[in-house]
Q: What sequence folds into this?
């Protein structure tokens, strides 16, 4: 009985070892390296995004609704929470030039992390995005009232206006 068990383990071990090199050849050896200096990033494919263009002919109401949706549906949860709460507080009070600034800010940069780093002041804001709305967003991000911001707001406030 014992010898049968030992034999099975030995055979299965030999079989696994003989298959291992074939399997390793099929699996890519690339893993996440972060900002490693030896990472050539040659395996990354850049997909060009269409250039941002301001939407002409939109009423302010439609623009606010679109910006509210776009503030809530981001590529990363941090910006979803931050921008949707910001939009809830400020979007209904923004005038046309402010809405244009906000539209450009959240839609032109192709990387959501850039917006997050600018809002948290981890990186300097490029001149093209600097302005009244960015200043409002940076101030909002500081959360001086220490509100609990764990999720995007419910949509119940939409028909009642900003609370």
A:
């Amino acid at each position: 009985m014992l010898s049968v068990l030992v034999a099975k383990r030995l055979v299965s071990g030999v079989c696994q070892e003989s298959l291992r090199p074939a399997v390793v050849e099929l699996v890519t050896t690339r893993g996440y390296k972060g900002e490693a200096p030896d990472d050539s990033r040659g395996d990354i494919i850049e997909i060009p995004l269409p250039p941002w263009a301001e939407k002409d002919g939109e009423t302010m109401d439609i623009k606010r609704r679109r910006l509210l949706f776009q503030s809530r549906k981001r590529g990363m949860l941090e910006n979803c929470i931050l921008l949707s709460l910001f939009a809830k507080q400020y979007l209904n009070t923004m005038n046309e030039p402010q809405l244009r600034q906000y539209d450009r800010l959240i839609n032109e940069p192709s990387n959501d992390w850039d917006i997050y780093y600018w809002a948290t002041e981890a990186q300097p804001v490029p001149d093209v995005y600097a302005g009244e709305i960015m200043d409002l967003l940076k101030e909002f991000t500081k959360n001086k009232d220490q509100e609990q911001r764990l999720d995007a707001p419910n949509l119940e406030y939409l028909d009642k206006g900003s609370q």
